[in-house]
Design goal:
mainly alpha, 4 strands
């Protein structure tokens, strides 16, 4: 199915991104404002944070792949405001997911380190793993926030939106 381990790794990151986008598309009315507990980040802030984290680390270790990406936080006086438009969030996450994959592939092909003035990764795959781990954490936080707000997915919906992207089952 894959012609290389790298191909499978990059595909896994794109599947992860698809799951985030599926979650975004499945948000109920008012879902952007849901929080796991009082004082925690809203769902909208968490989606913008995922994008911001991708861009922050890309800028640090592979800035040529950071250029042209969309920030999802805007400044309003002293406050940072998270993007609330699902279409804009989706477009930004699609583009940054591709930039992450391109950066990893590019660094592996050229042998350039993923190293910047303030950050570095011992290997490009470790950068990819950092992004996966970070985004998996926020996926869980978003699901918890939605659950706390009374929005619980059925097993069938979760299977379709999440798990079927990783494997197929026959019972």
């Amino acid at each position: 199915m894959y012609d290389s381990v790298l191909g499978a790794l990059l595909d896994s990151f794109q599947r992860n991104n698809t799951i985030l986008l599926n979650l975004l598309r499945a948000l109920p009315e008012g879902g952007m404002d849901a929080r796991a507990i009082e004082g925690s980040q809203s769902v909208g802030v968490q989606f913008s944070h995922v994008q911001n984290t991708r861009l922050f680390w890309l800028e640090q270790v592979a800035p040529e792949f950071w250029e042209g990406q969309t920030q999802l936080f805007s400044k309003d006086g002293d406050n940072w405001i998270a993007e609330r438009d699902p279409q804009r969030i989706e477009e930004a996450l699609r583009a940054s997911a591709q930039a992450v994959c391109d950066a990893v592939k590019g660094r592996l092909e050229t042998g350039q380190p993923m190293k910047g003035e303030h950050a570095s990764y011992d290997h490009p795959v470790l950068f990819l793993q950092h992004m996966l781990w970070h985004e998996g954490y926020h996926f869980g936080q978003i699901k918890l926030a939605l659950k706390a707000a009374g929005h619980v997915w059925s097993d069938e919906q979760e299977e379709k939106v999440v798990w079927s992207l990783w494997r197929t089952e026959v019972w």
